[in-house]
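Design a sequence for this backbone.
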């Protein structure tokens, strides 16, 4: 098997060069979509990928949602070179779980991806990402390849729902363990009396460091950043209703201000650590339904479920 270095990976995924979360990838030559890969991200990462890490009491760790971005990129690199004029989008994440603590990216991460199916232009993969200390994340990703022009046309489609309560927004302090660019909730807009349902808002800034590479000349918000909103929305509610350490399960809808549904999340388990840090540890499914452009404002609607 021939291993791809970073230059070889950039040749296969040219539209993600600014945030390429892979250092090497070895596709299986007789099984496109299957492969192994690796990445190491230190505090002083030479290409700036440290923005994808968080500073926890146990040290610098990879943001949990970013582990699925690593798996997704491993899936693309293990499949084939993306044709010119095309981009790869991720339609869904499912069956995600984290075993142990957040991954120690500085120690070196290794991953494996396997293609489960290929039907109608959609590719489904299952993967695992591990660090050297025995912590791991697993999950499935669903990807599709499309022309850039077709992706732009799809922005006019999608279902709409009524935007829930938006009253007296209160600014949410930035989570101190994350870099400023990975903060994805600006304010708490509304909550019901027992705090089992609430909304937050976030505006994706045009100055965000990821707009250059995701994608060049076609900036859209990363899907895993939308998934990350579940953590920050729980953190936002915590400012009004502090909770004890434990696990909170929520469903989340992300909407544009006109009610267009951008993302739907089912059974996201967020664990409150003893240090009062919310961390996604499991998710049944995340479905990405629309594109978010810089300067667009989103409503994050959360409901606690059993």
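Sequence:
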């Amino acid at each position: 098997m021939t291993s791809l270095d970073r230059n070889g990976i950039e040749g296969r995924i040219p539209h993600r060069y600014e945030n390429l979360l892979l250092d090497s990838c070895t596709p299986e030559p007789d099984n496109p979509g299957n492969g192994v890969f690796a990445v190491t991200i230190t505090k002083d990462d030479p290409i700036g990928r440290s923005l994808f890490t968080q500073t926890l009491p146990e040290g610098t760790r990879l943001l949990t949602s970013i582990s699925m971005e690593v798996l997704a990129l491993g899936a693309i690199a293990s499949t084939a070179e993306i044709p010119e004029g095309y981009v790869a989008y991720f339609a869904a994440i499912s069956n995600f779980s984290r075993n142990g603590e957040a991954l120690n990216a500085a120690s070196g991460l290794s991953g494996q991806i396997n293609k489960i199916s290929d039907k109608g232009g959609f590719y489904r993969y299952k993967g695992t990402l591990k660090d050297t200390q025995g912590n791991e994340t697993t999950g499935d990703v669903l990807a599709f390849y499309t022309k850039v022009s077709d992706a732009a046309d799809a922005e006019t489609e999608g279902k709409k729902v009524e935007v829930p309560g938006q009253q007296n927004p209160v600014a949410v302090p930035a989570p101190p363990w994350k870099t400023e660019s990975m903060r994805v909730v600006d304010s708490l807009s509304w909550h019901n009396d027992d705090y089992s349902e609430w909304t937050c808002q976030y505006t994706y800034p045009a100055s965000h460091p990821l707009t250059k590479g995701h994608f060049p000349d076609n900036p859209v918000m990363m899907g895993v950043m939308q998934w990350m909103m579940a953590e920050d929305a729980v953190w936002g509610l915590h400012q009004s209703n502090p909770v004890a350490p434990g696990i909170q399960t929520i469903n989340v809808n992300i909407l544009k201000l006109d009610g267009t549904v951008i993302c739907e999340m089912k059974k996201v388990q967020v664990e409150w650590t003893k240090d009062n840090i919310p961390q996604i540890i499991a998710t049944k499914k995340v479905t990405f339904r629309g594109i978010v452009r810089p300067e667009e404002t989103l409503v994050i609607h959360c409901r606690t479920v059993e």
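The mean pLDDT is 90.
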